[in-house]
Fold each of these.
Amino acid sequence: SAVISQKPSRDICQRGTSLTIQCQVDSQVTMMFWYRQQPGQSLTLIATANQGSEATYESGFVIDKFPISRPNLTFSTLTVSNMSPEDSSIYLCSVELFTDTQYFGPGTRLTVL
Amino acid sequence: DAKTTQPTSMDCAEGRAANLPCNHSTISGNEYVYWYRQIHSQGPQYIIHGLKNNETNEMASLIITEDRKSSTLILPHATLRDTAVYYCIVKDFNKFYFGSGTKLNVKP
C-alpha cells in the first residue's frame, strides 16, 4: 500500500477566495486522482493527474475552477477557485499502485461561508 | 458513470457474517471488481478485488459468480467497527466511478 497525506485536513474559507490542497505520497506513482464528496453523497471523480501531462477532467469539472498541478511523481495539488458555499465538500486524492489498486488520502474537509 | 448497483443499506448482527451483494451486469471480460469501505467520512479503505476467481484476504472474502455479472463481499464475523459504507466498483478505463454504496449497520 501507500502512505498518503493531505494538507490541510480541514479549512473554513470565505466565498470568492481560493484554496490549494496538497497531496503527498510516500512512493513514486504515475497516476493520481482527485475526488469530491459532497455532504451525504458518494465520491465523484474530478480529474486524473499524471506527471508530465495536463490533468484530464471529468464532465462537469473545468480547469479554471479546479486547476491541478503534478510537478513530480510524489506530489499533486488541487486548487478550488473562486469558492462558493456549493464547493463545501470533502476533497480526496488517491494514487494507483502497480497492483492496479487505488489508495486514498484522508481527505480535506472544506467549508465555504 | 458507475457500472454497479448495490442495496442502499443492510443490517447485520455483531459476530455474524455480513454478505453484501453487488450487480455489475455490464462488466467486460478483463475488468476487475473492487471493494472499498468508508468509515465516517474518512478516506475510502481498500478491502479486496478480483477478476473471476473467489478471493480471500485477512479482511474479507469475495465471491464472483461464474458469469461475472454479480459478486458478494463477505465479512465473516462482523464487528461494530465494520459499520461503514461499502462500495463495489468496476474500473472504467482505469478510473473508479463510485456508486451510492451500501450502508452496513452492525448491531450489538
Amino acid sequence: NAGVTQTPKFRILKIGQSMTLQCTQDMNHNYMYWYRQDPGMGLKLIYYSVGAGITDKGEVPNGYNVSRSTTEDFPLRLELAAPSQTSVYFCASSPGGRSYEQYFGPGTRLTVT
Amino acid sequence: ILNVEQSPQSLHVQEGDSTNFTCSFPSSNFYALHWYRWETAKSPEALFVMTLNGDEKKKGRISATLNTKEGYSYLYIKGSQPEDSATYLCADYNAGNNRKLIWGLGTSLAVNP
C-alpha cells in the first residue's frame, strides 16, 4: 500500500491565484482530513470528510473548499490565494472516528507571495 | 474548541536518560487520547490511541498512561536515544468537538549523544 499520497510536494503561488492540493489514500478509509501547520501554532483542521459525498468544516475553513466524490480522493481547493495561506498542508485518513489512529501524507509546502 | 495543553514545550536530554511529558485535556465528555511522533521533515505517525481510564500502553521503550478523570496523560521514554529526537504530539477526541481531534502544540525532544 502507498498509504496517503499528496501532490505537489512544494508550490509557490502568486496572490490571487488558485490551485488544488491532491490527496489520495489506498487503505479504503472512510474518514479523511486536511490540516495546516504553521510554526508555533500546531495542527489546525481545515476540512474533514466521514465518507464519499460528505464533508464538513474544521477550525479554519475560510479560503478553502473540498469535495469527496470517491472514497480514495479528497482534494483541497484554494481560491484566490493569500499570503496567510502560506503553510504546510497535511492530508490524513482514518478507518473510523475516535479510537482509530490517523495516517498522514507527506505534506505540501505552499508559499503565497 | 476545548484546549489541549502539553508540557514542557521543549526538552533536551542526554542519551540514556529517561524522560516524560504531560498532555492535559478536558476531562468531561472524553472519548479518546492520541499520541503521535513527528520527526523533522516527515509527517506525524501514531504511537498510541487510548480510550480507557487507567489505560497503559507500551511500544518498545515508549509507554503512556491515561487518567481521564483528571484529564491528563503521560508519555514516558526509557533510556532515550538520539533517534528519539522528535516532536511528540497529543490530540484529544472529545464529544464536544464533533468527531475532530484537537491537537496540542507538542513537546520537542532533543537527545544528545
